[in-house]
Write a structure and sequence with these properties.
The protein has 2 domains: 203 residues, Glycogen Phosphorylase B (Rossmann fold), CATH 3.40.50.2000; 143 residues, Rossmann fold, CATH 3.40.50.2000. The chain contains 14 helices and 13 strands. The longest helix is centred in the N-terminal third of the chain and has 17 residues. 47% of the residues are buried. It holds the Pfam family Glyco_transf_4.
Amino acid sequence: MTAAPRIMMSCDAIGGVWQYSLDLCRTLTAQGSVIALAVLGPPPGPRQRAQAEAIDGLSLFETGHDLDWTAADPRRIEEAGEHLALLAAAHDADIVHLNSPALAAAADFPAPVVTVAHSCVGTWWDAVRGGPLPADLAWRDELHRAGLDRADLAIAPSRSFAAATAAHHRLARMPLAIHNGRVASGASSRAMHDFAFTAGRLWDDAKNLATLDRAAARLSVPFRAAGPCDGPNGEHIDFAAIAPLGHLDDEAVADRLASRPVFVSASLYEPFGLAVLEAAMAGCPLVLSDIPTFRELWADVAVFVDPRDDFGFAEAIDRLIGDARIRIERGDAARIRARRYCPVATGTATMAAYRRLLDGNTLPARARALA
């Protein structure tokens, strides 16, 4: 296939998948693709609509269907997949790109399906809780696995997460690893301020903020955290030492990062870690939990600490705060490494995967099923 493929892509407007989708769409439309972007879950806000409308070759569709992780039962997810199949047919799509594998579990799509496993409850549970999944998560996990199996190509945002996904779901094929990317905020660096900083879903046990709160109590500098303290299902976290800033928009986070604080993540589970990438792009030194994904992306750049070691986090933060030369060197190294992870690289690799699939170099699932 020589012409750029027409694409039907699913997304949501309430998490990092929205930013991933828009960044990817900008790169793909610049190469000539025409894209129907179908939003599941809550509709995008006015600012998000404006972002989408600014991309030539992109049409935005609101489906009104539930997200896979908020749906009350499997049938809701199946209905969403069926709706997307109809939209793909109406769009005359050459590629169906699903940002939730569960959507591919039951629907029959009119074009090859590429699905991206950005995260999943099963691998989250393995890393954070361990043991058998509870019933409400088990059926979601099974739909996720079925979608990965039925897709013509599965993608993961890191090699580490691809391996974890393949192991948990007992996949016959390893997902293709294509690293995520972000565009630098453009905010100018300012004089360094002495504080530690983290950002993300603070309520999520996978982010392991309890360990960082204990570390913060041992620091001689403030520890500030941006993000919600309350989750969608009643989750909540309180802090004894960390100063929570609440939800901050991208500009406000970039403003904090421009002061090049020590950026810290104690995550137990990260398929990629966009907050870390944003901090690195700003030139912040990184203190990260020693987990496979962070080792893959930030080896020889970050300071690594056992994720449960609050003493170790406090010591690493204080050491960087107390030595300006090392702090600057680490921040510069992080900024250089971050250049690898850009939307153009993500989009170029994704387009190459589409073309291999359409040119027959990757055997589609439908052909495998009939072989």
